[in-house]
Amino acid sequence: MNEVLLKTDKLCKTFSNGGLQQHVLKNIDLQLYRGDFTVIMGASGAGKSTLLYALSGMDTPSIGSITFGDTVISDLSQDGLAVFRRNHCGFVFQQIYLIDGMSVMDNVLSAGLLVNKDKKAVVARAKELFAAVDISEETQRKFPTQISGGEAQRVGIVRALVNNPEILFADEPTGALNSQTGLDVLDTLTKFNEQGQSVVMVTHDMRSARRGNRILYLKDGIILGECDLGKYVHGDEARHEKLSAFLDEMGW
Q1: Domain count within the chain
Q2: Which band of pLDDT confidence, cut at 50, 70 and 90, is reported for residue 1?
Q3: Which CATH number goes with the domain that contains 117?
Q4: Best label site of 5, 29, 37, 116, fewest CB within 10 Å?
Q5: Residues 40, 51: contact at Cβ < 8 Å?
């Protein structure tokens, strides 16, 4: 039985818009398991990113609870949530948010030193991760404006992983990339997942979704269904057909 890493109970999120209540997430009961590559799919406006932000402590639910281990993170203060995110979560976004005035290496170190004051250990971890994603020492000395979009997203993944997070959250990580650089980023995420990294990714792209072993489909703020694809195997046509059939059933 896989270890439960994070769970929700009757999770709801409501926004007020001009005096009207918009119910974006509705009574979601969900368990995330250690080592899984979980993909969240659904049409635009289904609540995918809202769910991701709630699960990661970037936003708080209106009703219901989110529990990580023995900690009910939905009960934490804003300061407590910030500490939780730094210690347990990594984030990769469509927009990469590297700091232009800092080198690639310093961008990563600035995140690592928030948690670990041992600079030598943080540098060693950063170099290990840079090697894993094929970012050379020369590139590490460059500034974000001097590298390609694909390189920048791989730097973003290194920054997200430098503190050894228990969950890596990714929101449309290939959305702003061309086909080949997007594939490189997917390969990077897959490689770290194969090494045991838990990943939760929002995507609208089938090619990206195939990397997950568990697909959750959101519609109108509820989990309409889920699909178990098993661990990713390159070139597995049966995997593609199973996902396509599932998405057709969900009304994709």
Answers
A1: 1
A2: low
A3: 3.40.50.300
A4: 29
A5: yes
Residues 133, 137: Cα–Cα separation, whole Å: 12
Question: For residue 155, what are its two tokens?
Answer: 């730097």
pLDDT tens per residue across span 59-95: 999 999 999 988 999 999 999 999 999 999 999 988 8
Q: Tell me the pLDDT tens digit for each residue of 137-161.
A: 999 999 999 999 889 999 999 999 9
Q: Which two tokens stand for residue 101?
A: 């005035």
Domain containing 235 equals 4-250
pLDDT at 123: 96
Helix (H, G, I), strand (E, B) or coil at 11: strand
Q: Rounded distance, CA 213 to CA 194, Å?
A: 11
- Of 59, 246, 251, which is closest to residue 171 (Cα–Cα)? 59
Q: pTM here?
A: 0.93
Question: Which amino acid is present at 143?
Answer: F
How far is residue 226 CA from its own chain's centroid?
Answer: 18
Say which amino acid occupies 150. G
How far apart CA 104 and CA 12 sit, in angstroms, is: 38
Task: Output the CA torsion 59→65→69→73 (10° steps).
Answer: 40
Query: Do 198 and 164 meet the contact criterion of CB atoms below 8 Å apart?
Result: no
